[in-house]
Amino acid sequence: MSQIEVITGEASKRYAQALLDLACESKSLKIIENDISKLKKILLESNDLQKAISSPVIDVEKKVAVLTSIAKAASLSKLSTQFIGTVTKNRRSYDLLNILSFFQVLVANKKGTQLAKLTSAKSLTTAQLKEIKSNLKKTLGREVDVETSVDPDLLGGFIVRVGSRLYDSSLKTKLEDLKIALKEV
Fold first, then answer.
1. In the CATH scheme, what architecture does the domain 10-108 have?
2. SS (H, E, C) 121-177
3. In which order are the strands placed within the sheet that holds 144-150?
4. Where do the structural domains in the chain lie, given as residue ranges?
5. Distance (Å, rounded) from C-alpha 123 to C-alpha 121?
6. Could you tell me how far CA 159 lies from the centroid of its own chain?
7. What is the pLDDT of residues 88-110, one digit of tens each?
8. pTM score, two decimals?
């Protein structure tokens, strides 16, 4: 994981809420939700892009041009593209990942579900993902939307983040715990 996702500041919450309101008003929540997932994935996959949109040295107009061209290339809706442009023009592009993450939390809350971030050592099968969702539903007492990513450094197993809770069953962590235990002996 290249970026620690922490939702900070009231501004990111206000932008996310504004996007949710616009999506609901235009009756395009599902489309916007898919757009946000695509854009977030693009941003998370490119450290260079994250650095560029966070850099105070790069001109705002260049950031707008880059982000809107990415949005068009990813076939994002007009509303999503305009939103990204507005966020960037208002000099908040550095906070874009937080805004997108908070938007996903707001959508999950609106649907009565919980958002979980699952990172596994390798891609999970549909059956494995379904079983994890089922277990999370039993644990949390409500439906769970799972956002998945792959981190080969985990060696095996997976990590699930739900709000402030962390469930870590990765082989990497178990080996580190064993290493510490052996040092104490």
1. Orthogonal Bundle (1.10)
2. CCCCCHHHHHHHHHHHHHHHCCCEEEEEEECHHHCCCEEEEECCEEEECCHHHHHHH
3. 144-150, 114-120, 158-162, 165-168
4. 10-108, 113-184
5. 7
6. 15
7. 999 999 999 999 988 998 998 88
8. 0.72
